[in-house]
């Protein structure tokens, strides 16, 4: 973080606080799963540390990722820093273009979403159940990948994309008629049917 950001004069403390809270929560989740995290951080899920050149391989480490595609961990840190991560003279730094922040673009989601608390048979419940099923299927595939079937990793990545689509569809649904908040993925394990 630059000194300008620390004193809040660059974009104001509200932007910085909102970004830090969102990114810290997201980074914590990513670190807990190990997705895109440096090896040292993946072994310590509660540690949230800023990536540096000493963290090992370059950020574009995802399978089939283009040279400009960063792992989740680094994308979240770009949000916190408010700048793109760039490589200059062999070192990575947050000196790239600024990342604009529009508070109007922040989704107001329900807190602590729970599929089981939604009305049975409602469109909201069905959408949440679809999201939970996609999440469960992805976790099962990842479990198989780490249980000796690495060839299923690409399938798990496709499932992540499907989960993202279902989550975005859910987040477009108001939490109640006339509500200012929207539904959010519960990330609950779906029961076998």
Question: How would you portray this structure in words?
Answer:
- This protein is mostly helical and 193 residues long.
- Helices cover 42% and strands 3% of the residues.
- The protein has a two-stranded antiparallel sheet with strand order 1-2.
- Strand 1 and strand 2 (91-93) form a beta hairpin.
- The chain is flat, with a radius of gyration of 19 Å.
- Residues 1-13, 31-49, 53-58 and 60-65 have low confidence and may be disordered.
Give the arrangement of secondary structure elements.
Layout: H1 3-6, H2 13-33, H3 39-42, H4 72-81, E1 86-88, E2 91-93, H5 123-146, H6 153-170
Antiparallel strand pairs: 1-2
Helix pairs in contact: 2-4, 5-6
């Amino acid at each position: 973080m630059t000194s300008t950001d620390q004193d809040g004069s660059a974009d104001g403390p509200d932007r910085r606080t909102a970004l830090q809270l969102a990114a810290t929560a997201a980074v914590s989740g990513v670190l807990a799963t190990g997705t895109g995290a440096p090896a040292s951080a993946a072994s310590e899920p509660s540690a949230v540390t800023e990536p540096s050149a000493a963290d090992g391989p370059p950020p574009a480490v995802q399978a089939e990722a283009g040279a400009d595609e960063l792992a989740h961990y680094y994308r979240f840190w770009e949000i916190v820093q408010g700048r793109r991560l760039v490589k200059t003279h062999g070192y990575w730094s947050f000196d790239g273009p600024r990342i604009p922040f529009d508070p109007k673009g922040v989704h107001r989601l329900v807190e602590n979403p729970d599929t089981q608390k939604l009305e049975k048979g409602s469109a909201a419940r069905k959408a949440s159940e679809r999201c939970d099923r996609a999440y469960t299927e992805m976790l099962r595939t990842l479990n198989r990948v780490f249980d000796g079937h690495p060839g299923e990793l690409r399938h798990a990545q496709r499932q992540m994309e499907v989960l993202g689509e279902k989550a975005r569809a859910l987040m477009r649904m108001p939490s109640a008629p006339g509500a200012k908040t929207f539904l959010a993925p519960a990330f609950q394990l779906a029961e076998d049917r």
